[in-house]
């Protein structure tokens, strides 16, 4: 034990001044996580026609965690009804209305299964988070493979289903943008072929939704993400 202490001290003495860095590459992954008690999962099962994007969350001094979410869709009534029956949250409040979405604030309950804190514990960085029909779609960056494995082990230990959409190495010039998913590529291909980007448009979002067999809110959300990622990778 004494020798180990000496070794640590000598290592610290040789360390160059400056903050510790994890900016030398890493692993970027896009995952689909599912569990019956994940945050808002019961609501999303009852109201699959909406898309939820958490904006931010904060923990009060009382230990209560509040989450603010943007919700996209057309059936807010069914979403709000589902919120009132969701055991993973309580005290849902409508905060604001916009033409394309509504903003809600909810409080987490002790019945909610979480993965956000463990992401940070494993050294990960949350790049993006949104709901999907089969759970939560999350984009994460980890310093190395071992940290990603640690996060995966955490999910396994809590019966959180993990499906990998994308997995790639990052580098010093990485902008943090994950490649387009197959669904995003399919949507952009169909939208381009059918004249969605033409003036006037050759196809509406409603028609795109019918063509692909998804909801209008899913088309709107997928288009915004795909175009945003393309802009980030080509303009930044």
TrEMBL record:
Alphabetical list of Gene3D superfamilies matching this protein: Winged helix-like DNA-binding domain superfamily/Winged helix DNA-binding domain (1.10.10.10)
UniProt keyword Transcription present: yes
Domain of life: Archaea
SUPFAM superfamilies: Sigma3 and sigma4 domains of RNA polymerase sigma factors
Region entry Disordered, spans: 1-21
Keyword vocabulary terms for this entry: Transcription, Transcription regulation
Keyword presence, Transcription regulation: yes
One protein family per Pfam: HTH_10
Domain HTH cro/C1-type: 201-221
InterPro entries assigned to the protein according to its UniProt record, in alphabetical order: BAT_GAF/HTH-assoc, Cro/C1-type_HTH, HTH_bacterioopsin, RNA_pol_sigma_r3/r4-like, WH-like_DNA-bd_sf
PANTHER family, sorted: DIMETHYL SULFOXIDE REDUCTASE TRANSCRIPTIONAL ACTIVATOR
Name listed for the protein in its UniProt record: Bacterio-opsin activator HTH domain protein
Organism for this UniProt entry: Natronorubrum bangense JCM 10635
Lineage: Archaea, Methanobacteriati, Methanobacteriota, Stenosarchaea group, Halobacteria
